From TrEMBL:
This is DUF1858 domain-containing protein. PANTHER family: BSL7085 PROTEIN, DUF1858 DOMAIN-CONTAINING PROTEIN. InterPro entries: CHP03980_redox-disulphide, DUF1858, ScdA-like_N_sf. Residues 63-83 are annotated as: Disordered. Residues 5-57 form the DUF1858 domain. Pfam families: DUF1858 (PF08984). It comes from the Bacteria. It comes from Mesorhizobium huakuii.
Length: 83
């Protein structure tokens, strides 16, 4: 399975390329939208900084990115737990 989100992509790049990922960011309690650090933080960095489970965050971001513009809710975003 090919992943859309590369390990080196920043949160800013992800949100700009796939706007539906912003929903995941907000539901996860992260304030990456508009944050100047989002231009530097990868998914791994953001998960660590916000004490989130990286695998769940990455999975939800991938689901949003691959949804092709669908406004379907993310299944596990509300259930993200600290790592």
């Amino acid at each position: 399975m090919a992943f859309l989100i590369d390990d080196d992509m920043t949160m800013d790049q992800i949100m700009r390329r796939w706007p539906l990922t912003i929903r995941v960011v907000i539901r996860s309690g992260m304030l990456c939208v508009g944050c100047p650090i989002a231009s530097f933080h990868t998914v791994s960095d953001a998960a660590r900084e916000h004490e989130l489970d990286e695998d769940l965050l990455r999975s939800d971001l991938e689901a949003a990115a691959s949804s092709g513009g669908s406004a379907a809710p993310m299944s596990s975003a509300p259930g993200l737990r600290p790592a």
